[in-house]
Amino acid sequence: KTWRVRLGQSKIPYGWENLQSSSNRVTLDRADAMNSALLNERDVAAIVYWAPARVRQRLRMLVDSGLKGSGDFGVVGVGVYNGQGANRPDGNDVLHAVARVSYPFP
């Protein structure tokens, strides 16, 4: 599970708050700029995630201890998505690229 590939409709790894579950955040935790860039926070995508086992254990510990983590979306995430929003087919044959790097310090 060090490397994972997600194909299909998925949350786009574009910022910390978009990867959090809606049940773990209040309305004020949602930046308008972020939501206007990624309508519905999801899109059709192909994304590769990388996270070593010790980092995945730390991410699990954060969530299990009640802290607001974003879940296991890896240390590095790189992908492409269609840029039209959830449940919408591609309208212009132009893919959007996304990359995210994060590290859970103890």
What does this 3D model show about the protein?
With 106 residues, the protein is α+β, with helices and mostly antiparallel strands. 21% of the residues lie in helices and 28% in strands. It has 3 helices and 4 strands; from the N terminus they run E-H-H-E-H-E-E. It has helices at residues 16-19, 32-37, 53-64, and strands at 3-11, 42-50, 76-81, 96-101. A 4-stranded antiparallel beta sheet has the order 1-2-3-4, with no helix packed on it. The two termini are 21 Å apart. The relative contact order is 0.25. The mean pLDDT is 79.
Compact description:
With 106 residues, this protein is α+β, with helices and mostly antiparallel strands. Helices cover 21% and strands 28% of the residues.
Task: Note the topology.
Blueprint lengths: L2 E9 L4 H4 L12 H6 L4 E9 L2 H12 L11 E6 L14 E6 L5
Antiparallel strand pairs: 1-2, 2-3, 3-4
